[in-house]
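Review form for a predicted model. The reviewer records the input and the model, then writes brief findings.
Reviewer: anonymous (R2)
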Amino acid sequence: MKRKLILTNLLCILTFLAACSSGSKTNPSSDELLPDAYGKLYEQTVKERADDNTIFSLILLDHDDTPELAVYDQCYENLSIYTIKENKVVCLLDAMHAAEVTYYEQTGILAKFVRWNGGGDEGGYGWYYFRIGEDQTLTDESAPLLYNTYDAVYDEKGEFTGRGITLYYEQGQKIEKEEYHKILEKLGVNDHGKSCTEEAMGIDEIKKLLK
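Model under review:
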């Protein structure tokens, strides 16, 4: 009789735990939506932005497990990024123009690569780092947290000297290289990140994925 009572109690506990587990999966927090939930929300944004020049990708930019929707206009080289807050689609990044935009997974940090004078060792280029925020949308006019610039050095005859000058800045103030890299490490930026368009797809593919 005692053994039967123990088995009965054990069965009740297992049933309760299973119910709790099932409830947590069917009612996720707003920051951790299931694919069928965020898919429906993103579908409308995809429809509004869809054309022959636009590609889409799902990335993990902020700190939760619900992916962000990256939308890249290949004609104008503009990137926009959307997320979901309180069951609504919110724009995190609006039409940033850059040769490349990378992200650092689940850190909230973006970096854009810009080049001038042809880029490369005989031109100029720079990396600009931004942190996404919940209260404002990043744009091309937003000030970066951190950035570095490289400019090739030419002699008085206009010939490339074979060297260049790299400068480092935090919020517009020049800093030393060592301090710059320490700040990057604190931000969780310890590699080259992932391109926001690395796994991009066309309208038909993204619609299928969201369903």
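Findings: The chain is about 30% helix and 35% strand.
Further findings: The longest strand covers residues 160-170.
Recommendation: see findings above.
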